[in-house]
From TrEMBL:
<dbReference type="Pfam" id="PF01522">
    <property type="entry name" value="Polysacc_deac_1"/>
</dbReference>
<dbReference type="GO" id="GO:0046872">
    <property type="term" value="F:metal ion binding"/>
</dbReference>
<keyword id="KW-0472">Membrane</keyword>
<keyword id="KW-0378">Hydrolase</keyword>
<keyword id="KW-0325">Glycoprotein</keyword>
<dbReference type="GO" id="GO:0098552">
    <property type="term" value="C:side of membrane"/>
</dbReference>
<keyword id="KW-0449">Lipoprotein</keyword>
<feature type="signal peptide">
    <location>
        <begin position="1"/>
        <end position="21"/>
    </location>
</feature>
<keyword id="KW-1003">Cell membrane</keyword>
<protein>
    <submittedName>
        <fullName>Polysaccharide deacetylase</fullName>
    </submittedName>
</protein>
<dbReference type="InterPro" id="IPR011330">
    <property type="entry name" value="Glyco_hydro/deAcase_b/a-brl"/>
</dbReference>
<dbReference type="GO" id="GO:0005886">
    <property type="term" value="C:plasma membrane"/>
</dbReference>
<feature type="domain" description="NodB homology">
    <location>
        <begin position="39"/>
        <end position="224"/>
    </location>
</feature>
<keyword id="KW-0119">Carbohydrate metabolism</keyword>
<dbReference type="GO" id="GO:0016810">
    <property type="term" value="F:hydrolase activity, acting on carbon-nitrogen (but not peptide) bonds"/>
</dbReference>
<keyword id="KW-0479">Metal-binding</keyword>
<keyword id="KW-0336">GPI-anchor</keyword>
Amino acid sequence: MFTKAAVFVTACLALVGSASPTEKRQSLAQVITRCTKPNTAALTFDDGPWVYLYDVSKALVAANATGTFFFNGNNYECIYNADQIKRVQYAFDHGHQVASHTWSHKDLSTLTWDQIHDEMWRVELALQRIVGVVPAFMRPPFGSYNDLVRQASYIRGQKLVIWDFDSGDSVGATPAQSETDYDDLIAGHPSTILALNHETMETTAHQVLPYAIQKLQAAGYQLVSLADCLGLPAYQSEGPRGTPDSSWTC
């Protein structure tokens, strides 16, 4: 399983410069915890693709807003299933940013070097196949990482993304609690917002998100992608989509 990961790492090393593999192994990826463009808010959605993606996207598009989806490869369901492929393509085709949340949502800080790369390259390959892009950003599951994870991310040309606001939807917050948390956040009017939400939560898609969009825009925030709130490219490369075959499997 890790042979492919090792091959991918070798290829990445060739792309990131002429320094030795040891030097590159010791370099650490940047960790992003906040946006940098004033008056921007990046609404991000973890753990998909899932059934509520369509409603999340529609709520954003209706408000002329853009979201960022951190996708897993094999968490709730295999990303290569026909319905999952449609969801990923729908998000991308409607102008949202897609990014990596790793393959199976494991705590990367507990894994070996090869296991970390395996978790990363599988979902990167899936996104390249399904929508033709190699993501420039990775969010570690649970926000958990160590230097080994940062070293692997650096080699893979990715930045790690955390957040500066958590809606609490994945840890038991009720919609009312999440809405109150958004109200408290907006009342402090930070220059920028990088918000964590989960597209796998029905109440997030149908209650909290419409509320947050209205409140954030009323407070003067532009709702943009993660890449746009940072002024950085969303992808390392963009190209044609693949055609599903027997290798598209979990």
